[in-house]
Amino acid sequence: MTSFHPENFSILIVDDVVDNLEVISIMLTEQGYYTLKAPSGQQALVEARNALPDLILLDLMMPDMNGLEACRILKADAQTADIPIIFVTASDERDHLLQAFELGAVDYITKPFDCFELLVRIKTHLELKQVRDELKQALAVVEKLAATDELTGVANRRYLLEIATKEFERAKRYGRSLAIVMLDIDHFKLVNDNYGHQVGDRVLQQMAAVAAETLRKGDTLGRIGGEEFIALLPETAPSEAEEVAERLRQKIANLAIAISPEHNLQITVSLGLSVHLAGDVTIDAIITRADAALYVAKAQGRNQVVS
Ligand code: GH3
Ligand code: MG
Ligand code: MG
Ligand code: MG
What we know:
The protein is an alpha/beta fold. Helices cover about 50% and strands about 20% of the residues. It is built from ten helices and twelve strands. Strand 3, helix 3 (about 65-75) and strand 4 (about 85-90) form a beta-alpha-beta unit. The structure holds 3'-deoxy-guanosine-5'-triphosphate and magnesium ion (3 copies). 3'-deoxy-guanosine-5'-triphosphate (GH3) binds near residues 188, 226 and 227. This is Diguanylate cyclase.
């Protein structure tokens, strides 16, 4: 776990009594925390959304909007939902305590509070938040790795098929167009045989990079086999998809891959294009047609698009 540095944390203090705001703010600032202050429930919502503090100390009884209501709104907003909230209140009603925890508060401290106890609790909740944030980041990295083809950095087969299935369901439900382009490098075995596997790997990397940058933002490029890729094109009509496929073919054909100071290598790809048709029950139907079209492109002499 990363060590704890108060100066890395901002704490939003919410209290309708300005003196309370000041006293708590001075106490926290002395510890090194960065503080923000809100004198009302409404202000608290604005500050929380703007500053996304690491923790909120929330008064319960306030005239404009009570703390429980503010807590409910903060927890309902995805942006602020994960900010830990500690109630700091003069109310010792059991019902308030119960509601606060039910709404998702992490702690409940009654006024007048013991400064030392408040600081210890704040530190504990910030440490817990730090661990949660680190876990979230680690999970995002793992998810990214699990979806990525190690050699080329584009989507791997599993992730491409997962996205393709989702896009297919969406296209089917809303009657949208969806196209698939299957690419396969021509005579790639010769590249490996003539220049070695390492050069072959570099060809795959550069080809994938060029193909990826040729596609639009909503498109997904995935490596589904050794030298076989799929470009998934949502919301793309047949004529547009043909243009995309042709652009991919040209860009890849024009790619000069430096294999020595005086020698560049060029490659071509064959492409099979298919689009979502009314009768398709699964994404496999579209992929099978793209594969068949690719086979025809190979048979007709390679370096071409077949629909
Ligand atoms: P075609 O034009 O008919 O597609 O011919 P091809 O030689 O490209 O097709 P074939 O399927 O016979 O050969 C594919 C080659 O791709 C064989 C394999 O060694 C190579 N290959 C597959 N994965 C990798 C990889 O990760 N790195 C490298 N360097 N080569 C790979
Ligand atoms: Mg109050
Ligand atoms: Mg090939
Ligand atoms: Mg192949």
